[in-house]
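F.,

This is the one I mentioned.
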């Protein structure tokens, strides 16, 4: 049987996406990673840094095209929406047309995943400051998704956010839940949120979507894969409103 191959572009500082794909990729699926330089200013990733990464994504993905993947995924939540309203859709279209490989990005996958699990009254949790969380929440709202509340954890260093243990993420989310929350989106491809999904869904009895979980699901869907993933949450258990 032919092995399904996913090509994934990640920011140079990311330490979590590969671990998540290693843990959750189903049998018969391989992934291959290319790193895009995510520049910092005074040690901090800025909106301008994310915009530059967005604009460089197609060229950087050329390195992955060379190994003939079935799908290419640009995996950075903030960078995928850093160039204005609807830019995640335009980026996916541009990558697909330029590379001649079906292509997607984190926020496209997140929106599809939230719709698939029927997410409503979404608690959106962003690890970084309000400037970043506002852009993410607005992108979700522009896509017709119901954002109940958006919360910033105010990390300034993505590498520090990456050190949060899954149970710490669970505890933080449980403190943020209110009576109006019906689903949760945990943003960022550089936090261990995917591992927190089973415990959160068990405790809250509501769908939970994370960036890397959605990215893996979105890439697999685009490549025509069907199946379930142990520990992947409702998204990977077939509990979908939309196919």
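My design for it:
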């Amino acid at each position: 049987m032919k092995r399904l191959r996913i090509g994934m572009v990640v920011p140079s500082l990311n330490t979590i996406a590969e671990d998540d794909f290693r843990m959750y990729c189903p049998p018969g699926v391989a992934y291959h990673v290319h790193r895009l330089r995510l520049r910092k200013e005074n040690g901090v990733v800025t909106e301008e840094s994310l915009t530059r990464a967005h604009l460089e994504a197609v060229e950087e993905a050329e390195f992955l095209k060379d190994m003939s993947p079935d799908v290419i995924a640009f995996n950075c939540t903030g960078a995928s929406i850093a160039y204005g309203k609807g830019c995640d859709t335009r980026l996916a279209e541009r990558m697909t047309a330029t590379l001649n490989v079906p292509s997607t990005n984190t926020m496209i996958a997140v929106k599809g995943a939230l719709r698939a699990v029927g997410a409503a009254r979404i608690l959106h949790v962003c690890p970084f400051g309000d400037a970043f969380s506002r852009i993410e929440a607005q992108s979700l709202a522009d896509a017709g998704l119901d954002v109940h509340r958006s919360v910033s954890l105010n990390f300034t260093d993505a590498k520090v956010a990456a050190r949060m243990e899954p149970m710490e993420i669970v505890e933080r989310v449980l403190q943020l839940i209110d009576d109006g929350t019906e689903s949760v989106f945990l943003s960022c491809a550089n936090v261990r949120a995917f591992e927190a999904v089973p415990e959160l869904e068990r405790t809250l009895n509501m769908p939970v979507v994370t960036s890397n979980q959605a990215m893996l699901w979105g890439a697999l869907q685009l490549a025509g894969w069907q199946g379930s993933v142990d520990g992947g949450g409702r998204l990977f258990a077939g509990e979908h409103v939309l196919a």
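Residues 65 and 102 are 11 Å apart (CA to CA).

Talk soon.
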